[in-house]
Amino acid sequence: MSPRxxxxxxxxxxxHVVHTLHVHLVFVTKYRRNAITDAMLTRIxxxxxxxxxxxxxxxxxxxxxxxxxxxxxxxxxxVQLSKLVNSLKGVSSRRLRQEYDxxxxxxxxxxxxxxxxxxxxxxxxxxxTDIKLYIENQQRPV
Length: 142
What we know:
- The protein is built from 4 helices and 6 strands.
- The protein is an alpha+beta fold.
- It has a single domain, classed as 2-Layer Sandwich (Alpha-Beta Plaits), CATH 3.30.70.
- The mean pLDDT is 89.
- It comes from Streptomyces montanisoli.
- InterPro entries: Transposase_17, Transposase_17_sf.
- One of its GO terms (biological process) is DNA transposition.
């Protein structure tokens, strides 16, 4: 008896594409200040989920500390990663400043919540060495 095949829920299909794109994002508070409370961590997750949904993306995993957050986002190939990041950081910064104004002003100044930089790392799929080997072993046309 052959093993039963189960579809991978992370593989999505579009009109002309089959994809599974994941990115690990890390956002750090401005000046790496400890400006995030536990309540804010929970609120940031809610905001990030809403923004991802607007981009037809999914926040698969989230966690953070008092000076940074980690996100694992599953996104479609139609999304420009830089635009998704700008939206995630911009919307969350604006809402946190509105909802936690006194706390944020006490820890941060100048109208910024997040540092201007961020980390983005692609993930999922086979290791890079396997992909290189696969491409290397493709047939060349004669």
